[in-house]
């Protein structure tokens, strides 16, 4: 019988102070200002999956609320429905490239209505504004935002991020373990973070420390196969 374990790991909450900056210092500083003071009024972040756009949106939502202002994350809407625009608050729209016709229309109306409500807009996507398959007037509005491309992390920055992520789960990951994972695992950030998640789960289930031998055993299994070398 497989033994069940209580999940006593700390909650992983995206914050500004656990975002690994890399070459994205200006973007981080700008989103901090937007969350704290509502300026600049509209920012668009874009970057490949795992670049940190969603992390910064979640951190901005939390920081805005901590400052005593309302913040909302846009969800799916039906035709002619509007996104919530908290007065003197923040509206975040993630994965702009996936907006349907109703969502794109709601975003266009949000751009028009936001100044009167002094509501800042923070939008994120996986492509630059010109690559968004949205109606032209929405692309034009997004293109008028302050725009930042979030750059991918280099290996040293990935190592720092994985160590920080491990600490957020209560794990002290040795540099040799992280280095081995970067050499032999899939190199995109979602897969690297998934490997740490699985290592944590297995170490808890087996009552073993998260060691390099345990990681090797895990990567030889079906859950997280290594890339061909």
TrEMBL record:
Pfam families linked: Hda_lid (PF22688)
UniProt xrefs under InterPro entries: Hda_lid (IPR055199), P-loop_NTPase (IPR027417)
Give the matching SUPFAM superfamilies.
Answer: P-loop containing nucleoside triphosphate hydrolases (SSF52540)
Q: Hda lid domain spans which residues?
A: 155-219
Question: PANTHER family recorded for this chain?
Answer: CHROMOSOMAL REPLICATION INITIATOR PROTEIN DNAA, DNAA REGULATORY INACTIVATOR HDA
Q: What is this protein called?
A: DnaA regulatory inactivator Hda
């Amino acid at each position: 019988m497989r033994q069940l374990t209580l999940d006593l790991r700390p909650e992983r909450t995206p914050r500004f102070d656990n975002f690994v900056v890399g070459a994205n210092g200006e973007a981080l500083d700008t989103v901090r200002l937007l969350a704290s003071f509502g300026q600049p009024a509209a920012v668009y972040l874009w970057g490949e999956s795992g670049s940190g756009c969603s992390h910064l949106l979640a951190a901005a939502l939390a920081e805005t609320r901590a400052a005593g202002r309302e913040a909302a994350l846009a969800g799916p809407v039906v035709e002619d429905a509007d996104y919530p625009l908290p007065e003197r608050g923040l509206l975040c729209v993630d994965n702009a490239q996936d907006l349907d016709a109703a969502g794109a229309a709601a975003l266009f109306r949000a751009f028009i209505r936001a100044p009167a409500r002094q509501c800042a807009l923070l939008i994120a996507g996986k492509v630059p504004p010109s690559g968004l398959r949205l109606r032209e007037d929405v692309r034009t509005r997004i293109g008028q935002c302050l725009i930042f491309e979030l750059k991918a992390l280099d290996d040293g920055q990935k190592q720092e991020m994985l160590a920080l992520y491990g600490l957020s789960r209560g794990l002290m990951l040795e540099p040799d373990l992280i280095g081995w994972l970067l050499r032999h695992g899939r190199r995109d950030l979602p897969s690297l973070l998934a490997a740490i998640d699985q290592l944590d789960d297995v170490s808890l289930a087996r009552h073993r420390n998260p060691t390099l031998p345990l990681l090797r055993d895990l990567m030889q299994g079906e859950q997280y196969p290594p890339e061909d070398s």
